[in-house]
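Below is how a single chain appears once it has passed through the pipeline. First comes the sequence as given, then the structure the pipeline wrote out for it. We keep one example in the README because the format questions we get most often are answered faster by looking than by reading.
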Amino acid sequence: MTAQAHERAPANFLAIQALRAVAALLVVLLHAFETWGERVDPAAPGVNWDNGAAGVDIFFIISGFVMVISSRRLVDQAGAWLIFLRHRVVRIVPLYWLLTTVKVLAVVALGGVVLRTGLDFNFVAGSYLFLPVTDSAGHFRPVLPVGWTLTYEFLFYLLFAAALAMRVDVFRVIIPGLGLVAVAALVRTETWPAWTILFDTIVVEFVFGVALAKWTLQGFRLPPAIAGILVLVGFASILIAPMVSENTRVLTWGIPAFAIVAGAVSLESFVAPGLPRWLLTLGDASYSVYLSHGFVLPALGLLFSRLAWPGLWPEGLTIILCLLFGSLVGWGVFILIESPMLRALRRGRLL
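Resulting structure:
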């Protein structure tokens, strides 16, 4: 990687920051419809719409992209792999552990209104340790349900750190490593041990993000018209195309998500000046929004189960309020908890 390539890629991509916010809102939207279906009207329009889950696919591609961009100056440092892992652990773990603990306490105190969460020791311990744990229904879902994605994130981080430790191109580690996970997913059967639920073709999306970052560092940009079309077609696809099976997710949602992120990166110089401040702020808070909205939506669901009635208007109002309060509470968690915690860890030289 040349110095010229370093100069061609900005340190921060505001378009990526905006996409973080959009991805988080897609996941909130998914769970807002789910909440209405579980608490009020199982037959309501949209309650079986799973496409909001594609926000995770956008997140995974962004993760692959950002890890390459943000770690490029670590490559020549001694102990780069350890620095990288320390950054990732401090960035991801404290807030996740804190909110997981809050969820455990909520289950103990309010077990009658908490859906799908038990508290057996192995399940709770595995949730804290980012292991592939399953709930009572056999789904890959830890105590804090959205935490399943962090298991894949840490798998990717470990492989990325291994590449830094060996001082080799990251592709030489993540392609065989994540490739084995994807291939195992294609041949896995229900007779395999429960932990093998980890095997999933979704991990290929990290490779997409890494490839995009490498192309970007080499100065590659799509023409604005093509980039804009990719973003529009990508969003249309993930909002409409159903996920036929988990193994085909990388095709039905992963490729459109890649088109969105690639188009956004190429449009950076055009769209960055016009991006609204609130969207970028929400992008900053996207991790807090992602982790905390699971506390907000059930509370709203319980409220509307008592105040609302089946119908399109009450459902629409509930969805809007879920998006609004999910965002506001997530922003509050970011300002009051996540940011101060990270500043304290920086002062303690852990980051």
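The longest helix spans residues 312-347.

See the next section for the split statistics.
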